[in-house]
Amino acid sequence: MIEFPGKSDLSSLRTRKVIFALDVHTLEEGRRFVRLLKDRVGLFKVGLELFTAFGKEAVQAVQEEGGRVFLDLKLHDIPSTVSRAAEEAVKLGVEMFNLHATGGLEMMRETTDRCRKLAEKLGRPSPTILAVTILTSLDEGNLKEVGLAGAVQERVVRLAELAQRAGIDGVVASPQEIIPIRQHCGPRFIIVTPGIRPAFAEVGKDDQKRVMTAQEAIIAGADYIVIGRPIRLAPDPAAAMDKLLAEIG
After folding, report:
1. Cα dist from 150 to 145, 158, 173, 180, whole Å
2. Which residues on adjacent β-strands are paired with residue 28?
3. What domains can be seen in the chain, in order of their start residue?
């Protein structure tokens, strides 16, 4: 039976919805952010930059400091290669990882099957597996350049439905596609949204195009929001995260 949170639990509920992007250059810098923010966020995203530099040490550093890991490598290859790489993520004990939905139904299905069997064998919960739809750095013009004409939203929804058919737990999609994904894939399908900009932050030029404020994304139905630069570059990251949590609330 689902237990609904009381007033005392609402703060932790907000916290669990936030994923902080550890897009840093050193392990010590990563450890510092985990120590600073681990009581304010639900997960720490270890992406390509940190993982390419330090490998599994990056994941272990977050875990040693008391943080939970979203391994954001966006795996994309033939089914056997992706499923074996995903099994290594299971062995690392990450809470969440992702692959590209454009890898196809077979790739996603084989990966989910092998990961869940391995997790059961190891006696641990299977990580949440997400499929990346269309990167937030892309718009319709960019898709047209690579021969993918059509509305971004339609392609995102199609990929989300394919991922759901494959047994994937949810998707990574821009906040602008939350509502149509929810309409087509239902309330239990997990939606993780990057492209988040706090209402209080000055929006500078970066590579994300389909963005929304944290509060707007949560109201639209996001299960998790991913945020990095506006917090990481703030003079006081902890205070900036507190403001973000207040905004969500």
Report:
1. 11, 12, 17, 16
2. none
3. 7-248 (3.20.20.70)
Percent of the chain past pLDDT 70, that is, above it, reads: 90
The answer to whether the CB of 47 falls within 8 A of the CB of 73 is yes
Q: How far apart are CA 18 and CA 21, in angstroms?
A: 10
Q: Check if the beta carbon of residue 197 is closer than 8 Å to that of residue 218.
A: no
Angle between helices 152-165 and 178-185 (to 10 degrees): 40
Between CA 203 and CA 201 the distance in angstroms is: 6
Q: Which residues are within 8 A (CB) of 149 and not within 5 positions of it... i.e. 6 or more apart?
A: 143
Give the residue numbers annotated as catalytic, written as ranges. Answer: 74
Enumerate residue ranges in the chain where pLDDT < 70. Answer: 1-11, 13, 201-211
The C-alpha atoms of residue 213 and residue 53 are separated, in whole angstroms, by 31
Q: Which of 177, 93, 165 is nearest to 134 (CA)?
A: 177
- How do residues 139-185 score in pLDDT, each as one tens digit? 778 877 887 777 888 999 999 999 999 999 999 998 889 999 999 99
Looking only at the bridges linking them, the beta strands covering 69-75 and 128-132 are unpaired
Query: Could you give the dihedral angle defined by the CA atoms of residues 64, 10, 36 and 173, in that order, rounded to the nearest 10 degrees?
Result: 80
222-248, pLDDT tens digit by residue?
999 999 999 999 999 999 999 999 988
Q: Whole-model pTM above 0.85? A: yes
Mean per-residue pLDDT of the chain: 90
Look at residue 210 in the predicted model and tell me its pLDDT.
52
Taking alpha carbons only, the member of 162, 91, 90, 157 closest to residue 127 is 90
Q: Which two tokens stand for residue 167?
A: 């047994």
Measure the CA–CA gap between 124 and 163, rounded to whole angstroms: 23
